[in-house]
Amino acid sequence: MNTSDIIDETVLFVKETLKNAEGGHDWFHTQRVFNNALLIAKDEKCDPFIVALGALLHDIADAKFHDGDETVGPQMAHDFLSSLPLESPVIEHVVNIIKHISFRGGQKRVTFTSKELEVVQDADRLDAMGAIGIARTFNYGGFKNRALYDPQIPPKPGMSPEDYKKSKAPTINHFYEKLLLLKDLMNTKTGKKLAQKRHEFMESFLAQFYKEWNGEV
Fold first, then answer.
1. For 136-180, what is each residue's pLDDT tens digit?
2. How far is 213 from 217, CA to CA, in rounded Å?
3. What is d(CA 43, CA 36) in angstroms, rounded to the nearest whole number?
4. pLDDT by residue, tens only, the chain of 217 residues
5. Rounded Cα–Cα distance for residues 187 and 115 (Å)
6. Do 58 and 101 meet the contact criterion of CB atoms below 8 Å apart?
7. Is there a contact between 93 and 114 (Cβ–Cβ < 8 Å)?
8. Which pLDDT score, from 0 to 100, does residue 217 have?
9. How deeply is 128 buried, as exposed, middle or buried, from its count of CB atoms within 10 A (0-12, 13-18, 19+)?
10. HEC string of 30-79?
11. Phi and psi at residue 146, to the nearest 5°
12. Which has the closest alpha carbon to 28: 9, 15, 41?
């Protein structure tokens, strides 16, 4: 089995596993992250095979859909990758990408780094920004039956990972607690360039949102 076959097998596994996933964390999210990761990788000194596997498996079991358990995704990925003809260092690297990719309030201590993680992380963060990021944010807010906006509940940027995971704040708050912070957290040159455009789009959206909320339009 060559690398192309392994990628194809991984795609089939992810599609099947995420077939009933919430719309912002489904196969199409993974596909977008995969495509962005390959785009970013072209300008970085990294292993594109590890980038591809990390991107495909990065959200195989998002902790927010598993009672906050952050071990489910890495374990699922490890079990799947172990069924393929892969060397242990490749498997461990991909699993480490999955373990360390998440934002979690932006406060998590760094315990693993690699260029491949930086590429996949940027690709994942890009999908949380811009038009797609806005759509995903409100889709998840509806999924959790959250208010669109409540002027009486201010955003709380800089929350601990634990508080971030437990937050039930209105959807608009998520822009200030995560989405608008991502531009300055990008790792790669390409990621930073793409993030700037998406950041500006989100700022324009928020300006329009508040105008309409306040009856100014």
1. 999 999 999 999 999 999 999 888 877 877 788 999 999 999 999
2. 9
3. 12
4. 899 999 999 999 999 999 988 778 899 999 999 999 999 999 999 999 999 999 999 999 776 666 666 888 899 999 999 999 999 999 999 999 999 998 764 555 667 899 999 999 999 999 999 999 999 999 999 999 999 999 999 999 888 877 877 788 999 999 999 999 999 999 999 999 999 999 999 999 999 999 999 999 6
5. 9
6. yes
7. yes
8. 64
9. buried
10. HHHHHHHHHHHHCCCCCCHHHHHHHHHHCCCCCHHHCCCCCCHHHHHHHH
11. -95, 155
12. 15
Tokens representing 127 are 């999908």
Residue 1: how many other CB atoms lie within 10 Å:
10
Residue with tokens 């393929």: 84
Burial (CB count within 10 angstroms: exposed 0-12, middle 13-18, buried 19+), residue 26: middle
Entry field: residues in the chain: 217
Contact 38, 191 (CB under 8 A): no
Q: Which residue has the tokens 């192309």?
A: 4
Tokens of residue 92, six digits: 């461990």
Chain centroid to Cα 115, Å, comes to 17
* Cβ neighbours of residue 157 closer than 8 Å, sequence gap 6 or more: 176, 177, 181
Torsion angle, alpha carbons of 160, 163, 168, 169, to 10: -40
- Dihedral class, residue 130 (left if φ above 0, else alpha if ψ from -120 to 50, else beta): left
CA 30 to chain centre: 9
The answer to whether the CB of 27 falls within 8 A of the CB of 19 is: yes
